[in-house]
Amino acid sequence: MFKALLLDNTNGFSAQITNVDEAKMPEGEVTVAVSYSTLNFKDGLAITNKGPVVRSWPMVAGIDGAGTVLSSTHAAWRAGDAFVHTGWGVGETHWGCLAEKARLKGDWLVKLPPALAPRQAMAIGTAGYTAMLCVLALEDHGVTPEAGEVLVTGATGGVGSVAIALLGKLGYKVVAATGKSAEEPYLKSLGASGIIDRSLLSNAGKPFQKERWAAVIDCVGSHTLANALAQTRYGGVVAACGLAQGMDLSTTVMPFILRGVTLAGIDSVMAPLIKRQRAWDRLARDLDLELLESMIEEVPLEQAIAKAHDLMDGKVRGRVVVKVAA
């Protein structure tokens, strides 16, 4: 038996911390001991049942995990190896990592960089890893710190917080969009040089607006993404990775064909291993771990359900780390 956050919908939805029989674990080449997990937006949707995330019941929640391999039949993994896991439908169609143990496919796992402890890896989690994929998209498109201002929307969230910390350390001039004016000191401590109110972007606007941003990392979607595209400078790039405001996008081709703007879609769930390892290696190198620590709120597994509700109610900033191991 092992402790897990189990979701069920057999006789109405339920979420509870309970003991689970190891014999019921799904197939997979690698069995792991999870030291730490985390709460991402998708976890919040699943645990509060506010979105159709889970597609197989019952389901152990938790799309992210970090810890140690217990046993493996996969050639790349041996007992004692340190791993980090994000995505691949875990916590949706395959039992997840908000549990003391998990059984996963070896090809889903990434070698934990030596510079990172499991707790730090989960402070990064899918959110921070996604932020790094966004930064890499900007770099691959040729956006340098000298190019001009970079806008980060959803700035106090997990992706936004890590993106600001990464961009700030790399020398970019970051402008953070937030609806939480009281968080200005927090955002500037991460590396933001300026703050704008999200209301300037969150309503329907003209499809072609005054140029401002050399690049954008957007975690919000909907009108915010449309306005960001309309304000992006000639040759700029917008990395889109979220839909906190909505999944709709009402815009025109004008920014693309008159300013050469690139809209880069960022997928973290099914990204290939080589892309994942590149991102984690860069996180180990470029993320200020002291700043990362300032983003963390740690809770035990027993408090994960309540904290997921806080996350969906907008009461969480930065990253929630869930300590799973006793």
Describe the structure.
The relative contact order is 0.17. Helix 1 (41-48) packs across helix 9 (304-312), helix 2 (118-140) crosses helix 3 (158-169) and helix 2 crosses helix 7 (273-286). This protein is of the alpha/beta class. The protein is 29% helix and 28% strand.
Features:
2 domains, alpha/beta, 326 residues, Rossmann fold, six-stranded parallel sheet, globular, Quinone Oxidoreductase, Chain A, domain 1, seven-stranded mixed sheet, 9 helices
What is the H/E string?
EEEHEEEEEHEHEHEEHEHEHHEHE
- How many distinct beta strands? 16
* Class based on secondary structure composition and strand pairing: alpha/beta
Approximately how much beta-strand content do the residues carry? 25-35%
Percent helix: 25-40%
Give a quick precis of the structure.
With 326 residues, the chain is an alpha/beta fold. The protein has 9 helices and 16 strands.
Topology record:
Blueprint: E1 2-8, E2 14-20, E3 30-39, H1 41-48, E4 59-60, E5 64-72, E6 82-86, E7 101-104, E8 110-111, H2 118-140, E9 149-152, H3 158-169, E10 173-178, H4 184-190, E11 192-197, E12 213-218, H5 222-231, E13 232-240, H6 254-258, E14 262-265, H7 273-286, H8 289-295, E15 296-300, H9 304-312, E16 319-323
Parallel strand pairs: 9-10, 9-12, 10-11, 12-13, 13-14, 15-16
Antiparallel strand pairs: 1-2, 1-4, 3-5, 3-7, 3-16, 5-6, 6-8
Helix pairs in contact: 1-9, 2-3, 2-7
